[in-house]
Structure prediction request, 950 residues.
Amino acid sequence: MNDTILELYQIEKSFGDVRVLNGIDLSVPKGEFITLLGPSGCGKTTTLRIIAGLETPDRGRVFLAGKDVTDLEPNKRNVNTVFQNYALFPHMNVEANIAYSLKLKRIDKQTISKTVKEALDLVQLAGYEKRMPDELSGGQRQRVAIARAIVNEPAVLLLDEPLGALDLQLRHQMQIELKRLQKRLGVTFIYITHDQEEALNMSDRIAVMRDGKFEQIGTPAQVYDHPRTSYVARFVGSANLISGTAYNVGEGLIRLDTEDGPGLVRTRGARIMDGQAITVAVRRESVTLVTGETNDNLGLRAVVKEKNYAGGVLQIIVSLSDGRELVSSRQGIDSPLKAGDHVLVTWLPDQGVIVDLEEAG
Amino acid sequence: MKKKSKLPGLYLGFILALMYIPILLVIIYSFNESRISSVWGGWSLRWYRDLFRDRDIMEAMTNSLFLATVSSLSAAVIGTLAAVGMPKTNLRGKGIIEYLSTLPIMIPEIILGMVFLVYFSLIKLPFGMITLAVAHTSFCIPYVYMLVKARLVGIDKSYAEAAKDLGATEWNVFWDITLPLILPAITSGVLLAFAMSLDDVVISVFVTGVNTNTLPLKIYTQLKTGVTPKINALCTLMFVSTMLIVITSAWFARKSVSRTERRINSEEASGIGDSIGLVR
Amino acid sequence: MNTEIRRGSPAVLMTGGEPRKRKASFRRLFDAATISVVPIYVFTLLFVVGPLVYMVVLSFLKRAETWGVLREFTWANYSNILKPVYLKTFYESLKLASFTTLFVALVGYPFGYFMARLTAVWKRRMMLLLMIPFWTSSLIRLYGWIIIFRANGTLDNILMGIGLTKAPLKLLYTYSAVVVGMIYALVPFMIFAVYSSAEKLDWQLVEAARDLGATPWQAFITVSFRLTLPGLLSGVVLTFIPSMGLFFIADILGGNKVILVGNLIQEQLMKARNWPFAAALSVVLMILTSIMIALYRKVSGVKDLEGLV
Prediction:
């Protein structure tokens, strides 16, 4: 497979005493839309800056189209960035901003104006050539920033939370547009965000980052449905995490014994010893609360703490005997449960995922 | 972006060194035992002793301190009242007056000195302490005015509104709310004005009388005619006092910011401190 | 000098004139705010406007034979300036000012620019370090240069010590000494002006330029320099104007060899006692100053000088 466009090998980076990147590896095939997802401070922007050449790694190499570019200046790399706050040059109009990189290459005027026009058409801003950046709305600046970054036909386009400054509605619209644009250009996008919904909507693959390391790299479905670690489960799926002791019951099923009662999960091929301490992630919408007894004696005893509604979704928070809280959510308006009710927390074995297993991978 | 170059640091250090060397030389030579100032004769405090015995210099020092006190305090009263009153008054031409009142620190000093000289002799003001005080007050006012004005802009209007809501009169508001809040700014402005007055040569040259000497005038004459080592000592003392005043002023300016803004961030605070230097 | 300070705009003058407001104006005359601004009105009219107006008037009056001024109108003071000897002074002044400004820009721009790239802590330290020489009396600083420049002074000792020169250089009372003194006195203004401009510069723009293919130098020219230009121009104005009037630097370091407009004014005022001519010189200097500021505003599009509070 020689269509790998970008490869990071064992990248490490520290700022002063702070270790920002802890030896990360990443391989990105040509034309992929990959998202680096993580909270602020996890090292995703630093990763992007290292790819762009704005930062030099302490250790490790960066390969672009098979070539080692680790020590190459940013202007010598066929990579362009859409900056978080767009970084449009305030003293140049839209046309001059977009033409900037072409002018540096001393391309002839006619080609430049043709390319600029095409780029503006592509981002649906035809006719805005002479506007200054401060005369544009947030969404328009965003488009200009994208146009400016793509006229150079970069091998990889880096986007640093490009939708962060936009309001919710515009953000949804731009998500669709960006995805479409990427399909059309066939350019590899490396996209940074801390918004898991954005990542799930747009990406071919998601790399979840934490403390300068990748926790899990996979398709949105893999990351969402089969989180490998409790961190991914919590960050991407806002999942409940339940700890207990494992006991094999056969047929690829495991009984999870907790202080509050047992639950069942599927092993999915993982080899688990009897008596091993495990953590199981169960997404909120997979949690069912049952009053009275269950016929299979499964379920964790819990007490309803509070109910709330958000966007048509009902959330019921229950607490276990040790005070830890679990959340169950479902579409709907109300439930007969009320605070103080005793319930059993249950889920289907297929919906529980064992996380934080050592040999995972 | 890549490896951090050491060049900027070296450059900044080199230029700073150049800025300090002349001042340090003056200070070092003030402790020189030798009478001939180009020869080093060992450490000594004799010039400081001589300095305090020199009645002319002591008189000039008294004059300078008196002048700086009078002009900075007059400026404090006029400038503060104006800064507080200007936004509220409907008097005509306030924009023009505001602009004109800052002219004394905008136009070249020599022109200011020259116009004062001819004007004072026109209105027959006796040259001496009075003319000096008027001239100095004129360039002291802008410092107080601008610092107090800047501070007033930063004060939340709701304080005054809350006070009025609780039954305070306009006067109560000024006395109980505004004044305490702008006091650091006033102090800072007064100290700067004091330092400016204490240092002024150009304007003083023109408006002083035959028998009135200030310290800078004394030094100026000596630099032109020939220096005695006492001047080294005098310069050093002036340097130290100016520094004390400016640092105190910066401290007040910083305080003036933190008083009203709880979420004080260091950038802003230093911003105010910085601006003090720029007014000059 | 304060960016807050509005330039005298005619609009402000007119607001009080509406008929309905007139009625209330009697009471308004006695409200607290109005009383509190009376002192500055009086002081400004009496001691700023008065003198400046008189200066202009004086510049059109005749000089009396022995002492004082005659109340007769004349253009003579202005036509006097056109005499070669005085024109030469203006020319020399402008030349020295240009020299000084050029060097000040060369020294001060990189300083202000580098300073703006420091960390917040170092910026504050640097500011303090700059503040000290800046606030030191210019006389003390000049005196320091005398110590350095005079025959057998510090510079001579160093140069002769390392064997570069054999005899004392006669550096004091030369043109170069005056230029050095001027640069020294004025460079902080340039630094502050450039710094305040560069401080506002978004460094991400430089990164964006690099990202789009610019070399460090290209990025500097097309982005950083272009965006800090208002600061540089402001610094130019702030050094050029005073450098025409700093007569005492020319006096002390130049020893009467360098005559500037400032020296000429002082001489006409104190020695020749030709006040009308001194007034005319001042008016011309004021006009030159105003033209520079107006030009600056036009070129940079900024209303107020950068770096002034």
